Predict the 3D structure of the following.
Amino acid sequence: MDTVAVVLAGGVGTRLYPASTADRPKQFLSFGGQSLLARTVERARAVAETVYVLTRPEYEERIPEHAPDAEVLVEPAGRDTGPALVFAAHRIREREGDHVQLVLPSDHHVEGPFASVAEQACEVAADTGRLVAVGVEPDRPAVGYGYVKPGTDRGDYYEAAGFFEKPSPGAAERYRYNGFYWNSGMFAWTPDALLSAARGTELDALVSGLESGTAERAFALAPEVSVDHAVLEQSNSVALVPAPEGFEWDDLGTWDALARVFSDAADDDGNVALGSGDALTPGAEDCLIVAGENSHVSAVGVSDLTVAAYDGRVLVVPTREAHRVREVVDRLREDGEE
């Protein structure tokens, strides 16, 4: 079968506030070189004959700036990855016929043998009819990631024995010790396999609506739910393909992830400066400073902080608590300021 890549580019990325906003979602951001979306599409082209960028209506016209040669598929509304990927499976099957879909989030950092693990995932999906999740061996007990427990070893893959979301620190340490993998958010399946698995779940009405020609109404009524929770966790036909040694992966959804990914660019005091603005760090240690266009940040005598300045808005947070940035965005939305 041909491989069709589906790049997810409909989210906002609230945990990268104030760089990422509803008007400037994180997939369009660049922290040096190409935007996150452009990098992902380029990576997808290494293994896929056709690349689709799946996005919401308000971002449709911006996609060609970052992925001029990709097909653009617009979901009727933002409903998280469950409805979005069911919609994509149905629509792309109509256009492309039988194929394997390789699903890639647009906001991940990937280095190393991406093509080999992507091709293996697609081969397992085509040969077995299973839904395939790509797993990454944890290098730390991350509480913000989902985990997959490997089951029976089938040679080219494991049967997935369970999905576990955002554990406590103690549970994350146990998962790592017991050989669990991070759920990378990269998947492979045939459209038929995903649509069949979505039957009988909370996305059942959406599948029926797509098949009966009432997609927009069905989509409007669909729940906001991830494909992991709605489908993968409910299925007994999920394969886990582990990424090989040397595969580097991180979800660039939080400021601390950027600090990790760009650590090689740190100065002698461990400070990382990103963005097109200016930064000064006299006496600072182990800080992430991100200054947007026309912004200037000075961090003096502080340590272990993230300071981000964009469009007149400034965020200061201990880097270890970067996951709490969502609380700021929620508060701003309550006050009508975001």
